[in-house]
Amino acid sequence: MDRLSFKTLEAQGYEGYLLKDAKERVFQFGEGNFLRAFVEDFIDQMNEKAGFDAKVVVCQPRGGHPEAADRFAEQDGLYTLVLRGRKDGQAVERTRVISCVSRCLDPKRDWAKMLECMHNEDLRFIVSNTTEAGIAFDPACKADDAPPSSFPAKLTAMLYERWKTGLKGFIILSCELIDHNGDELKRCVNEYIKLWALEDEFCAWVNGENIFCSTLVDRIVTGGAKAEAPALWEKWGYEDQLIDTGEIFAAWVIEGPQSIKDEFPFEKAGLPIQVVDDVTPYKQRKVRILNGAHTSMVLGAYLAGKNIVRDCMQDKSIRAFLNKAMFEEIIPTLDLPKEELEGFAASVIDRFDNPFIDHQLLSIALNSASKWKARVMPSVTEYVKRTGKLPRCLSFSLAAFIAFYHKGERDGAAYDVSDDAWVLDFFKAHKDDDYKALAHAVINNEQFWGGELAGLPGLEQAVTADLERIEAVGMYKAMEECLG
């Protein structure tokens, strides 16, 4: 079977959109599954629907794997993206050959080529996703390293090369999963300017002529589909070593000036991208609704006999529990327009009900102590502040959290509880407590919650009652009773 290439697709009479020649307008740090199923998908659609006419130069953040970079050359930069999920309650599957990648560079082999890219006057965007640890200042990096080891150091060296050409700066879109990712990247670049004693004029150019955007990215990307790849190749009639898969849903919120829209034609292409003054409320929306819904549901649902998220969505009572938590208890604590929040929550239901992803509840349950604190606790405290009452489902989820860590078994079979050692040690030390003492110990543990829960009126009594009810009637029935 022939490898995916322009020649192979031409021989097949491929009728989809393909872009052979265009200007390299985007340089991307990161060649992994996420960016290829997210940023490249958007750019490819902007090329087709909005005349963006852009190719992307991708590079490995650290390098040292030239064979991975060479796969792009072997396939003319092409790869097949399969997106699957639910949209408006219906199962949807979309397959697209992505054609916007021009080449992939390995910094350790191709550093000179990376610097050469800075001489391209058409290059305007820099995108990155170098993992949460990628945006970090390493003082061991030197200005004459070829290349420097850290991503911000590489970027600084490349910006310096750009400045020397006299060309304009960049719109820099950071996609790493840390708060204020663009601001943090800019801070690291300025640290290198200072460390390397670079010119004041260069510093002024970096900070005045480049736009460092913090962004929020949202799409579940499931990757290379190794198990089903041979069957897909047979169906398509070609072999694709760069196949990528993900969910239908996607959202990209970019913090920056509205002028970005003039150069990044996502609106014309009808893409789920927003340019906003402050990404914070959108991050809060994602953490509280999407992540908070997960965390508030999964521990109880597992003890109620469910194993994957989709099972929960197909159970009338558990789905109703989730809906009540999101629409009646979480959304009233947020400040974005209600219609926008409810639309996002509806998309969450579709995502959880994805027929193509078996999302294990025990996987989501990892490190639930810190997850409940970050994802659920703010909604509980804000709900109490705004209404003077406890949110019924969210407060119950704290009892479910305690029961999950306390019990350690379901239907007589033990399950693994994975968390920091001090969390597990705490529950081991309180394994013989009655439910009133256990609820008191958990709620008043400052290491868990920083003192945020200790003063909430009625919480101890409610959690104690819920724990006793779980013991008396079982988790499933106790969750049903939360529906009133």
Describe this structure in words.
The protein has 484 residues and is an alpha/beta fold. It is globular. The protein has 24 helices and 14 strands. The protein starts with 5 loop residues before the first helix and ends with a helix. A hairpin with a 2-residue loop joins strand 13 and strand 14 (413-414). Helix 6 crosses helix 7, helix 12 (280-303) crosses helix 19 and helix 19 (392-407) packs across helix 23.
Topology overview:
Blueprint: H1 6-12, E1 23-29, H2 33-37, H3 39-50, E2 54-59, H4 66-74, E3 79-87, E4 90-98, E5 101-105, H5 107-117, E6 125-128, H6 151-165, E7 171-174, H7 181-195, H8 200-209, E8 211-218, E9 221-223, H9 229-236, E10 244-247, E11 251-255, H10 260-263, H11 266-269, E12 273-276, H12 280-303, H13 309-313, H14 316-330, H15 338-352, H16 361-364, H17 368-375, H18 377-387, H19 392-407, E13 409-410, E14 413-414, H20 421-429, H21 435-443, H22 446-449, H23 459-473, H24 475-481
Parallel strand pairs: 1-2, 1-6, 2-5, 3-10, 6-7, 7-8, 11-12
Antiparallel strand pairs: 3-4, 8-11, 9-10, 13-14
N- and C-termini, Cα separation: 60 Å
- Summarize model confidence as the mean pLDDT: 96
The rounded Rg comes to 25 Å
The computed structural class is alpha/beta
Helix tally?
24
Brief summary of the model shown:
The protein has 484 residues and is α/β, with parallel strands linked by helices. Helix content is 50%, strand content 15%.
Give me some keywords for this one:
484 residues, alpha/beta, 8-stranded mixed sheet, 4-stranded mixed sheet, 24 helices
